[in-house]
Amino acid sequence: MKISVGLYGSSAHQIALAMIQGFNRHYSLFRQTCREAKLRFEQGDWLGVHRAVKERIRFYDDRVDECVDRLRAEFDASHIDDTIWQQVKLLYIGLLLNHKQPELAETFFNSVTTKILDRSYFHNDFLFVRPTISTENLEADLDPIYRSYYATASGLRGAIREIVEDFAWQRPFADLERDVNYVYHAIRRHLKGMPRREVNFQIQVLGSAFYRNKAAYIIGKAINGALEYPFTIPVLHDSAGKLFLDTVLLDAWRIGLLFSLSRAYFMVDMEVPSGYVQFLRSIMPNKPRSEIYVMLGLGKQGKTMFFRDCIYHLHHSEDKFIMAPGIRGLVMLVFTLPSYPYVFKIIKDIFGSSKEMDQATVKKKFLMVKQVDRVGRMADTLEFSNVSLPLARFDDEVMDELHRLAPSKYEIEGDQLIIKHLYIERRMEPLNIHLDRMDKSNNLEGLEHAIKEYGSAIRELAQANIFPGDMLWKNFGVTRYGRVVFYDYDEIEYMTDINFRRIPPAPDFETEMSGEVWYPVHRGDVFPEEFATFLLGSPQVRKLFLKHHKDLLTPAFWQEAQTKIRAGHVEDFFPYPQELRFLNSRPDNDETAAGSDKAQISPE
Predict the structure, then answer these.
(1) What's this model's pTM, rounded to 2 decimal places?
(2) Dihedral sign (CA 279, 280, 284, 289)
(3) Beta carbons of 27 and 63 less than 8 angstroms apart
(4) DSSP-based helix, strand, coil % in the chain, nearest 5
(5) Of 474, 467, 471, whose CA–CA distance to 332 is shortest?
(6) What is the dihedral sign for C-alpha 515, 519, 522, 524?
(7) What is the Cα–Cα distance from 284 to 281, expressed in whole angstroms?
């Protein structure tokens, strides 16, 4: 369809302008809070960091709602005919031709439109089912996507120093020359000497630092001949408030772990987000673009790209959705597609008798997981509404379970199954299945590692103000890197809302042996001594757990964690092994660095 010149100034044109203005307002506010991340880092405002992450979660939906309200108030949008909507889309495309975030703006258009139109209109004529505007080779007007550095007269050390200084943090370094030397020698060790510099040698560094929790990350790559060498340098505060380079990560897979969905989202100031994603993909080619967008705080774009990838995968596969392996949960119905590395979760209509909650509470728990620091120990989820999947791809058991346990959560329209509300997360091996496999294969080392990881997950979540609630093995999964992650959220609580108590002594022997509770128990009371009864039935498992995590069975650990949280203490969590940190290389083993309390932190 050709756009008539007469459309400019029409109601369709005004609607398109209103929608792009709504998106531009959203992205302006998004960039503002990301720019402020630098100031929060410089000021050491760690509680402010967590507040900003939590508040940013709402930005997108708030702006979509604002735009919908405006279109309804000014244009009576619910009663616009099909021809006008087609014109709006075509005019909107014209507004994106020189835009710096066209892919995000297209997704914003879809979000607004689907809130206004009936689901029967969700088709190509009115939505951006696939990208219309190319994001290839988009250039920023003001802030470069990346900066290039060359090891000239000052050599590689000089280039490293220049890279760090160009971020212009308004806080002094404790000893930048020392840290630059650490980086230089770490690179030499990793490469087993320095290769000869080719004529094209340069170092490319993304223009904005990546801020998360108490760290700023410098991300870049060196190019030498036909080879590229990715790197990431975390920058932290020491106990005196000065900056230092904590380590340098030189393996692509370790850098990829920084972008794990089990961690909090980054704050990054990006004029051209697609340029950042393209650069990061050159470092992590196996990381889906959808996950990179999510980790950059652009969750809606990540969801859009994930679903496009999912539909593409369905077109090129034949297996069916089946019930996910493991013990069935009381709240969530979980199925998976064996050829696709994700699980799909639906809140049941009927909960198990032991679950005293409603569906709204479960949704709040999932939202809570997005808003907190997941410290690498909780799986993030992508939340969808009205998901259309081919009915023929569901096996009979899944359909029977849906009909029996979640009849209100789906509809069948022709050959499509429409799921009204759905959570999707990365598939992991359930911990109970993993432990059973380790035990049957007599892999004692693997068994001990898993149990140690399990306790570390509970410990780190507690230090991050999260009490898992239901700590049964089945509610944890094992990643491909052997890390234990929690993924059952219907009973999680903030640590500060729990009353951890010691079981009082029984008044007499008969009372103690009766099996009846002889002490009052109130809502929110938790008795850590009871954990062993439910979790450590196997003598071998019990022995290994007590070896590494005996203190988790005492109220003292939990109460001490609560005291720190209430005092405003923010724990240090490192998404890389402790042994990689430069402080281990210092002659005096200087422990002035953040994290010198040596909290038990498990590497990724």
Answers:
(1) 0.89
(2) negative
(3) no
(4) 45, 15, 35
(5) 474
(6) negative
(7) 5
Token pair 């969801």 is found at: 303
Residue 593 has pLDDT above 70, yes or no: no
What's the one-letter identity of residue 578?
Answer: Q
Structure tokens given for 566: 């209430």
Parallel, antiparallel, or unpaired: how do β-strands 227-237 and 243-245 relate?
Answer: antiparallel
Torsion angle in degrees (nearest 10) through CA of 54, 60, 63, 65: -100
Q: Which are the catalytic amino acids? A: 380
d(CA 351, CA 348) in angstroms, rounded, equals 6
Burial class (CB in 10 A: 0-12, 13-18, 19+), 316: exposed
Q: Which of 59-73, 351-365, 462-476, 522-536 has the lowest mean pLDDT?
A: 351-365
Residue 557 tokens read as 């650990």
* pLDDT tens digits, one per residue of 423-456: 999 999 999 999 999 999 999 999 999 999 999 9
In terms of DSSP bridges, do strands 342-347 and 382-390 run parallel, antiparallel, or are they unpaired?
unpaired
Q: At what angle do helices 102-116 and 82-95 cross, to 10 degrees?
A: 160
At residue 418 the predicted structure's pLDDT band, cuts being 50, 70 and 90, is very high
CA dihedral sign of residues 427, 431, 433, 437: positive
Please give the helix or strand (H or E) that residue 223 lies within, else none.
strand 215-224
Joined tokens for residue 312: 């593409």
Q: What pLDDT digit, counting tens, does each position of 195-232 carry? A: 999 999 999 999 999 999 999 999 999 999 999 999 99
Say yes or no to pLDDT of 4 above 80: no
